[in-house]
Amino acid sequence: MTRVIVWNEYIHEKENKVVESLYPRGIHNTIADGIRKDGVEVGTATLEEHEHGLTEEVLNNTDVLIWWGHAGHDRVEDYIVQRVHQRVLKGMGLIVLHSGHFSKIFKSLMGTSCDLKWREAGEKERLWVVDPAHPIAEGLGAYIELEHEEMYGEHFDIPAPEELVFVSWFAGGEVFRSGVTYHRGQGKVFYFRPGHETYPTYHNQEVLRVISNAVQWAAPKHGATPVYGNAQPLEQI
Amino acid sequence: MTRVIVWNEYIHEKENKVVESLYPRGIHNTIADGIRKDGVEVGTATLEEHEHGLTEEVLNNTDVLIWWGHAGHDRVEDYIVQRVHQRVLKGMGLIVLHSGHFSKIFKSLMGTSCDLKWREAGEKERLWVVDPAHPIAEGLGAYIELEHEEMYGEHFDIPAPEELVFVSWFAGGEVFRSGVTYHRGQGKVFYFRPGHETYPTYHNQEVLRVISNAVQWAAPKHGATPVYGNAQPLEQI
Amino acid sequence: MTRVIVWNEYIHEKENKVVESLYPRGIHNTIADGIRKDGVEVGTATLEEHEHGLTEEVLNNTDVLIWWGHAGHDRVEDYIVQRVHQRVLKGMGLIVLHSGHFSKIFKSLMGTSCDLKWREAGEKERLWVVDPAHPIAEGLGAYIELEHEEMYGEHFDIPAPEELVFVSWFAGGEVFRSGVTYHRGQGKVFYFRPGHETYPTYHNQEVLRVISNAVQWAAPKHGATPVYGNAQPLEQI
Amino acid sequence: MTRVIVWNEYIHEKENKVVESLYPRGIHNTIADGIRKDGVEVGTATLEEHEHGLTEEVLNNTDVLIWWGHAGHDRVEDYIVQRVHQRVLKGMGLIVLHSGHFSKIFKSLMGTSCDLKWREAGEKERLWVVDPAHPIAEGLGAYIELEHEEMYGEHFDIPAPEELVFVSWFAGGEVFRSGVTYHRGQGKVFYFRPGHETYPTYHNQEVLRVISNAVQWAAPKHGATPVYGNAQPLEQI
Predict the structure, then answer these.
(1) Pfam families under this entry (chains A, B, C, D) (predicted)?
(2) Where are the beta strands (DSSP E) in A70-225?
């Protein structure tokens, strides 16, 4: 059983009628419903909950955390960010969506500004698969097309991805590295670009397929057990 | 069901008593027996069989091919190498073991000489996990220790690995990038260093665990479907 | 002094009036003239010359080889391809341009099909810099714009680039990894997409700047001296 | 002219007679003297200076910063760490040495714990070149040997290196990724393992050669100029 928590700041849905109509129970519940299936148990957590819904107990029982944030990045407590960071290093998978590129947790895991170009013009985005062997691209065609999305353009100030899965084309003339993977300690991180709150992106079956694939990819495998600190020699010196 | 074929040139076992005593039914059968389990169907193929046991039909029904060769590299027909190469690009996983570094198929997939330093002195090898988040390292400790192995030392003339999972320490003073992954087309390739024929390496449970993990990692995921060739524009130009 | 040879099949220029008018002395001479400067000595070689102009002596005195081929890939002799391949592994830089993606030398260095989507529609290409720290991007702005180019689209069947410097946007809706680097043995390889023969791409100062930067990047640095083959232990075993 | 600052906490040299005798004017001055040459201007800075010697003006006039710290990591002010971090993202090269793996600046650029195994036993270290094409390995042989060093062993909790240049062998049985490169924003980062304060490592000519090579590699190239923030479309949508 893979245990997933979808975290959402849950702000826009309560302040903007367009967002509310698209995601009446919040982006988190739409994503959770869209990826729940046999073998995958999905819960949610939001900014306003106690410790943002990310207590030690919750995180210790989470295999993969999905993160959507935007207007409330600064309201996420630093000690919670530290806690999530530590859990990732210990093996929890993390999937950061869209405007989460500027979240404290993503920036602290990347070590860069995570800045980018952007534009809200409802233009067409086409996400091309550039690594068809990657499990996160499982079941897709050559690309995913989204009729209306916010534009994110290069330069995206992230470390060179360990694996580059998607590159986006935008009608307005830009490109973007839209699906990128990293290992951090024993944990895996996937950033996936689409998902502006005023578009129905998280109702798109291919977008949900990618997130669902990423959950499988990011789930910890009870990997090797590294050893740190002072150590006696294994051989006679 | 993941369908695996273990390919072995099957020469040393018939010519060398030490090797025969370690692997009486051939290295291929020892490996096949060691990784067979629920959900994994394992067959074998050898150099002397018709088309080296790698007919179109066999390969089209193989998800992961494991390759052990040494003395007979030159006796593998070029058209079979081409056929395996094409199958890898179409999605078949390939696990190349030990002296397979000099096989035609590995060299053609790498594009380099695949040369290295080597020594047969039965010295100790210790394979350190350098990427504990990697699924191929699942279930291991900090390292695998092999009391007696052939030494392979750097420089190993391969392309920079896409993922580096193991680095070996040798008693004689060398190191080696011992577990390395690549994507090639829609297929995945894993090279794993240990397995000299005069040592009982493929009876080691941790070595078998790594190969078994690698089978899961390399099995095709019915990935994205790329499109090639001349194409009409998707947008009005 | 960095010694460069620009190799060109030199076929289209003699058969097509448009190409001839753009490159009256051949693409090779336009590129050579465009990158010649203090400290860089540039010669040319073509398919019709003895040994395609790539004798042992020429290659042994070349630091960086630039390759433009298209209609004549099959007419390049295999033993010359082998010779160039060996020189790359020994340290010679190689810059492969545009339709050179299907050259024998590039495919043998990559180990993949190097296939892609393509379209001749004279559409706009915009090459975005995705790694502004890379020396090959020195002196550029955020992107290079080419008013008319042939389209190459993903999936581009190459190994994951070691460094991804440029990603192209095309008006017709595709993207492409347009500037990619690899190490192969002691040599460095850079593939750069633009340069269809019917457009004035190699007269563009930014394109020439990229090629010129790439020459500096790819020039051998009298690097470390690897050792291969059978070796005595460095430590008492 | 490449402008280099060697930063050192300068603590052990004043507290430990062994260290003082090896580095009477401090590790920083030994390194500075060892890498100064035509075209490279080298200064120093230490913890006790005003703003640790790293004022805005100093950093704005520095191309490459070299960092040695150990006992005083916590005494480095956070705002100075932020300042250095920002300068790296804007293009300044950073070379982190030995125990600097636990410095605030390195950890914030990596996003991981940067933890490792260690042992002070004065054992032999042999640094193998695993990427002979890399400019940082220029002029070396197959390896560098250091008779006495502190051991650092895997797992080293860093992001997968973008380029892996050296792997260390230790007499006590461990290995370590000893020379690793990263791009961060417009800046380049090189971590180089050797240099425990009680050994004469920074008097070793090959170690100095590596640091000197790394300075050339890390020096900013007046690279591409990325653009961030809200942007008008480049094409009609």
Answers:
(1) ThuA
(2) 93-97, 117-129, 143-153, 163-170, 175-184, 187-192
Shortest CA gap D60–chain B (Å): 34
Give the three-state DSSP class for B134.
Answer: coil
Q: How many CB atoms lie within 10 A of CB A6?
A: 29
Amino acid at site D82: Q
pLDDT at D223: 72
Euclidean distance between the first and the last CA atom of chain D, given in angstroms as a whole number: 46
Domain B2-114+178-218 = CATH 3.40.50.12780: no
List of chain C residues whose C-beta atoms are within 8 Å of the C-beta of residue B108: 108, 111
Q: Using CB atoms, which residue from C132, C167, C173 is nearest to A167? A: C167
CA separation for the pair C154, A143 (Å, rounded): 9
pLDDT single digits (tens) D180-212: 999 999 999 999 999 999 999 999 999 999 999
- Whether ipTM exceeds 0.85: yes
pTM above 0.95, yes or no: yes
AA letter at B44? T
Inform me whether the pLDDT recorded for B171 exceeds 90.
yes
Length reported for chain D: 237
User: Would you place residue B218 in the very low, low, confident or very high pLDDT band (cuts 50, 70, 90)?
Assistant: very high
Domain ranges of chain C: 2-114+178-218
Chain A contact set for D154 (CB, 8 A)? 226
**Measured between beta carbons, which residues in chain C are less than 8 angstroms from residue A164?**
160, 164
Q: What gap in Å lies between CA A42 and CA A61, rounded to an integer? A: 12
Contact B132 A185 (CB under 8 A): yes
The answer to whether B134 contacts A223, with C-beta atoms less than 8 Å apart, is: yes
**pLDDT tens track for C92-109:** 999 999 999 999 999 999
Selecting from A137, A142, A226 the residue whose C-beta is nearest the C-beta of B227 gives A142
Residue D107: its H or E element? helix D104-110
- How much is the pLDDT for C109? 98
**Phi and psi for C71 in degrees, rounded to 5?**
-75, -20
pLDDT digits (tens, 9 = 90+) for D117-166: 999 999 999 999 999 999 999 999 999 999 999 999 999 999 999 999 99
Strand spans (E) along B172-212: 175-184, 187-192
